[in-house]
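Sorry to interrupt, but I need a hand with the structure work. Go ahead and set the record down below:
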Amino acid sequence: MVDLSAEVAELWASLGPPAPGRARIVQFASARRGEGASTVAREFALFAARRAARRVWLVDLDLFASSQHAAIDAAPDRYGRLGQPVSASPEGQAFFTVRPPTRMPDGSDAPDARFLMGYPVGEGRFWVTRFRADVLRGGQSVHILPSADYWQVLRRYADVIVVDGPSADRSQSAVTVAPFMDQTVLVVAADQPDVKAPAQLRDAITAAGGRPAGLFFNRASVETPGLVKAILP
């Protein structure tokens, strides 16, 4: 496992202090799979959980993979053991919708929130989500919603919310939720010389109303937004 402690500490400092009394939401995204955005998001959430006064949520947008839950479960010595799951939708909202909806025995539609669980990690200030893909039925599909509702509610229950978006070459989820994030950090593998794809993702996030915060060169160093302008004109 690559130790990114120093890099995420520098990133934490470079993002600046959050607005007083308002939870910060930081999304991590990459243009291509394999850049390590999930690893960076998880390490950033761990760093934040050791400093936050209240809860830190790690929300995994890659619903069918649930890689964050699996990675944390596989490394209890680093992250802490997973506790018993609860609903990850404190007031019943969801950032996705399942179509067609599941029918309940009484004929009503099952709420989308029932598919998303939250697991306490270690002492319980760090939480990670897991989508219950196992209870989907044949023919059902899941779509990320362009809505702020879920994120606005979750802010009331956390100090920091870290969102792990799937790579842009697999899904547009990171762009869809970008307008509701305070910042989106673009992760690029340190040995990847081609910045065309990250530039296109930056432009897509900006066009959607999101706020790209800068580049994180995975396995190298954190760069500030000013340098991003120089690298990605």
